[in-house]
Amino acid sequence: MTLPDEFLWGVSTSAFQVEGAFTAAGRRPSVWDSFPAFGGQDASVACDHYHRYREDVALMRSLGVGAYRFSISWPRVLAGDLGFYDRLVDELLAAGIAPVATLYHWDTPVEVEEAGGWLARGTTGRFADFATAVGERLADRVAMWIPVNEPAMVTLLGYATGQHAPGKALLFDALPAAHHLNLGHGLAVAALRATGARAVGTANNHTPVWGDGPAVEAYSDLHNWLFADPLLAGRYPAWLAELMPVRDGDLGVTSAPLDFYGVNYYNPTRVRAPSEGNPLPFELVDVTGYPRTGFGWPVVPSGLTEMITLLRNRFVDLPPVYVTESGCSYEHSIEDTERIAYLEGHVDAALEAGVRGYFTWSLMDNFEWDSGYSQRFGLVHVDHETQERTPRASFGWYRDRIRR
User: Fold this and answer.
1) Catalytic (active site) residue 150
2) N or C: which terminus of the chain has fewer CB atoms within 10 Å of its end residue's CB?
3) Would you place residue 2 in the very low, low, confident or very high pLDDT band (cuts 50, 70, 90)?
4) Confidence of residue 215 (pLDDT cuts 50, 70, 90)
5) Confidence grade of residue 303 (pLDDT, cut at 50, 70, 90)
6) What whole-number distance in Å separates Cα of residue 39 and Cα of residue 41?
7) Collapsing DSSP states into helix, strand and coil, what is residue 143?
């Protein structure tokens, strides 16, 4: 396929999942530090990226990627430690790799959560202050900025169902978190631009929704449009708008123009009408007939093209699109043929959709939130006992695909 000029090949990680070094420079605690994970595992060491970043940047350089998407630990910055990100950004630039910084990848500081977290409007101002502090330090060297990663997952899993930290099961009472995440995004966009930041966008998790009737519209509104509409059109889906704590001027803030739109895609979702007693307007149904990842997620590359088409049809002025996350977990194997097949299908689907770049999740095996180390997403295998890095066959495939 013909690539657009300056197509951006990248890899992604997040701070909590790879950095470790919880005690470095007095890092403050996050809501994930004590949240239960598979087998009682924790991320206090994770991939020790905090200390081994030079080794990891060297791996990226040998891979041939043009960009590294990482996140900045809000708890670490609250403790005054921005020095690590200074060193990381400089190391990336020296290797010819563009830094792509995410401000918030789910690791809310405990002190912020205790003050109400994303359910509280005051968190949006604290987040804007965080954006300013980071932008003043790094805006001169970071190529692309993402204020909030996957607000849908924070809202739905963290506040509505309790599967993720902070572990609240509020169902529809979680909706204020959605608005405050969107508002925090908008305030951070303004704060970053005030510090001289260049390209500012977002990274929303999206899923095409399959099924019949009102259940499809309801689920798609909650997962997709509750977060895309206020950013790209300055509105909420009609039936949800009255449930959101919107004040005058808020939607003008959330819809600040973006330089790019990031799509995080893993799989489609199937729904049906809810059974009796279900408080939700839909019921999830298994997507069958496709290969599955180690997480049990169906592998459907065409769903990525479908989702980007849906976005373009809904928003006529959609900014340039990047796939900011797409990847798969499988049981450990150096000859990971299943991951190669996954990547080949999804890269082709992304190119067919005409995106500007593709970031695979993830550079290396990491701490996968409530699943601990049980799920391995990495192009690079990490022995979490010794921290030895071993590139998998998929690493070589991705390197060769980039070269082609």
Assistant:
1) yes
2) C
3) low
4) very high
5) very high
6) 5
7) coil
State the average pLDDT over residues 74-93.
Answer: 97
The answer to the question of residue 342 being in a domain is yes
Going by C-alpha positions, the residue among 296, 278, 298, 280 that lies closest to residue 288 is: 298
Q: What are the backbone dihedrals phi and psi of residue 98, each rounded to the nearest 5 degrees, phi first? A: -75, 125
Whether residue 2 is contained in a domain is answered as no
The tokens for 69 are 């998407």
* pLDDT for position 151: 98
CB 326, CB 346: distance < 8 Å: yes
Do the domain assignments include residue 3? no
Work out how many domains the chain is built from and give that number. 1
At position 182, the amino acid (one-letter code) is: N
Q: How many CA atoms lie within 13 A of 304 on its CB side?
A: 31
DSSP string, 42-80: --SSTT-HHHHHHHHHHHHHHHT-SEEEEE--HHHHHTT
Give the per-residue pLDDT at 395. Answer: 98
Q: Where would I find the H helices in 95-154?
A: 110-114, 122-138, 151-153
Of residues 157, 144, 154, 161, the one with CA closest to residue 123: 154
Do 308 and 321 form a contact (C-beta atoms < 8 A)?
Answer: yes
Distance CA 99, CA 91 (A): 10
φ and ψ at 308, to 5 degrees?
Answer: -65, -35
* CB-based contact 189:258 (threshold 8 Å): yes
H/E element, 345 = helix 337-352
Cβ–Cβ < 8 Å for 382, 17: no
Q: Which of 19, 91, 113, 150 is catalytic?
A: 150
Question: Sheet containing 269-272: which strands, arranged edge to edge?
Answer: 209-210, 269-272, 283-285
Closest to 215 (Cα-Cα) out of 158, 275, 169: 275
| CATH code of residue 323 | 3.20.20.80
Catalytic residue among 19, 325, 338, 368: 325
Cα 223 from Cα 227, distance rounded (Å): 7
- Which alpha helices (H) appear in 195-325, and where do they start and end? 214-220, 226-232, 238-241, 250-254, 302-314
- Quick check: 80 and 26 in contact, CB under 8 A? yes
The pLDDT assigned to 366 comes to 98
Domain that holds residue 180: 8-403
Domain assignment present for residue 394? The answer is: yes
